[in-house]
Amino acid sequence: MRRLSMRWLAVAVAGLAWWGPSTAHAEWPDKPIRFIVPYPAGGGTDIVARAVGKRMAENLGQPVIIENRPGASTIIGTEAVARAEGDGYTIGLVTDSHALNPIFFGQKLSYDSVKDFAPVSQLVFVPFILVANPKAQVSTVQELIAAAKARPGKITYASIGNGTPHYLAMEWVKALADIDLTHVPYKGVAPALADVVGGQVDVMFTGMSSGVPHVRSGRLKGLAVSGKERSAIAPDIPTVAESGLKAFSFMTWYGVVAPASTPPGIVGRLSKEIRKALESPEVKEQFVKLGVEGAPSTPEEFGAFLQRESAHYQHIIKLTGAKGE
Fold this sequence. Notes:
Elements: H1 2-27, E1 33-37, H2 44-60, E2 64-68, H3 75-83, E3 90-95, H4 97-105, E4 117-132, H5 141-150, E5 156-159, H6 165-177, E6 182-185, H7 189-198, E7 203-207, H8 208-217, E8 221-225, E9 251-259, H9 264-278, H10 281-290, E10 293-294, H11 299-320
């Protein structure tokens, strides 16, 4: 009888060992989720993250707390995601910089952009708008090119740092137009755009959501949009390609990653919750106003997309000679 009892005890313990992790995953989430955004508050990335996070929180029944950790071409915030515990309670927003940083910084990166992360989902595609302070006295791309050729190096452009999409887009314009502009880097879109509005810097590429309101108010001039087609929220502004640089087409994007050790089941659940948020009428309506396009994907699809983007940017960097910090 004692032998039989011990046998049943062993079976019960084995059953608990099998059931425990499954139960833990089934109970996720039972506390707030940290959503790290490697940009300052107020920019397009922050707006999108808060819209998606708010909807996710409503569906999951737990707060999704946005944590802005800007700086170093997004490396500071992204490293925090890589070093976090893979328990499903830390996720991070990534942009083109996630594909660009390994190219620009190589072994200087404190993390591996592939091995240290689990792709979760793409969020959106984001066309840029090229804006100029009225004091720069340029209203079109062709006028910018002419002014830059007349005064080499005198016209300044803002970005959120070397190796970022905002920087690379302008470097591509410089290469195609064969002009010289002076780069002024910032830690985020908000301070960069503030200085363009204030006239301290002449021009910059920025997201539609942050640039168009200033164009409509007259504080800035909209020279061109970066995508293949005109934007629905600014249909009167031509594309860069329409403005004479026919080879130019640039769309930035946002996505979500988790620490590499995050269980696949939780990664899949996060991806589904992001899709639900992006497909909600409220978020769709907000994104139309922002000029961004929702682009939910599976973890596998987002991983393949990241690989393609890396190859795409390697081509542009070779063409432009763009540098990291």
